What does this fold into?
Amino acid sequence: MNKINYKRLSKFLSLVLRHKPELLDLTFDEDGFTTISIDELVKRMQKYPHWKELTTEDIYTVVENDTKGRFEIKNQKIRARYGHSIPVGSRMWLQKKPADRNLLPKLLYHGTTRKAAEKILKEGLLPQHRQFVHLSPTIEWAHTVGKRHTKRPTILIIDTDCALKKGVKMWIASKSTILATPVPSECIRIHSG
It folds into this structure.
């Protein structure tokens, strides 16, 4: 019986593909994919005691079942689609055409803490330690994201048309995540619900 905890595996993949590739001595190609195969990735992970029983199938299972679409596999290589704090994330998206307006919802959302929301309303929404601002297409997704930071997240509403008119570029990273360049404060308000 497989003893791999898929939630823990997803978190570890997020860590090495988005923030700390040095843990597995990873490098990425111009599209953000690992320069090594998934089989080699598994061998490198198996050096850690916790991942001794890891298989290539486990990696595929995590990618296929990830509801947020964090990862992508192509030609036996893997990448994180978004959320990078390392330069690969911006390079990957900036070379793609931003999403057409008709593909974006009228309103987007961002879940955060009350304190951060107050700052955002003054300074705008900035990527912080990531390459892009992460927005959600629904209040529910934003609430889920915000719960990582606080028990009672504050939901911000972003007026998509306002943001686009101010020069914000947006890309659809997955069904739950829209990436954006910094969003000015005049396009943001607090959800009252």
